[in-house]
Design goal:
Shape: elongated
Structural class: mainly alpha
Strand content: 5-15%
Oligomer: single chain
Radius of gyration: 45 Å
Distance between the termini: 136 Å
Number of helices: 4
Number of strands: 2
Helix content: 55-70%
Length: 177
């Protein structure tokens, strides 16, 4: 006969008989475990949120680094162009002001009052393309002069080479014209 002070409790689909103190302790432990599980789930969600924020921050940092590199290179190139054209500028001068100085040096009649940044950028790009083409033409001519094959050049005076051609014709030899 079961003891009247014992209570039946079900754990994992099995019925057990235990004293009321054990049942109370088990119920308290289950309640605390549920509260801890809820707290753990909240902390886990917060951790996942921080992981997402960290990965987003890493992506932003990489984008900022790439942008900074390209901006630094563009600024260096712009300062090089300005220096090449003997334009004086301050280190804290804006890109637009340096471009205006270079353009004014190349074409003193240009005015930029009330013009947009896009206008100045386009004018600068066109001017640099023109300057680059002009330099290519001159350097191309120099290269063509340097490339000539000295063995093909006839250094004799024109009259002597003309006389030589006439004599070849008289002898019936084929002469290249």
């Amino acid at each position: 006969m079961p003891d009247p002070k014992l209570v039946t409790i079900r754990l994992d689909s099995i019925d057990y008989t235990a004293s009321p103190e054990v049942v109370n302790a088990l119920n308290k432990a289950q309640t605390e475990m549920a509260a801890l599980q809820k707290r753990f789930d909240g902390l886990e969600a917060e951790r996942d949120s921080f992981k997402t924020k960290v990965s987003e921050a890493d992506a932003k940092i990489a984008a900022i680094k790439a942008t900074a590199r390209s901006e630094m290179k563009a600024r260096f190139d712009l300062e090089t162009v300005a220096t090449t054209n003997k334009v004086k500028f301050d280190e804290d001068a804006t890109d637009r002001s340096i471009k205006e100085l270079v353009l004014t040096k190349l074409n003193p009649s240009m005015k930029f009052d009330g013009k947009s940044d896009d206008y100045v950028d386009s004018a600068f790009d066109i001017a640099m393309t023109y300057e680059g083409d002009k330099n290519k033409k001159v350097s191309g001519q120099k290269q063509n002069l340097d490339k000539r094959n000295d063995s093909e050049v006839d250094y004799r005076p024109g009259a002597i080479s003309g006389r030589e051609t006439m004599l070849r014709r008289l002898r019936g030899e084929k002469v290249d014209a």
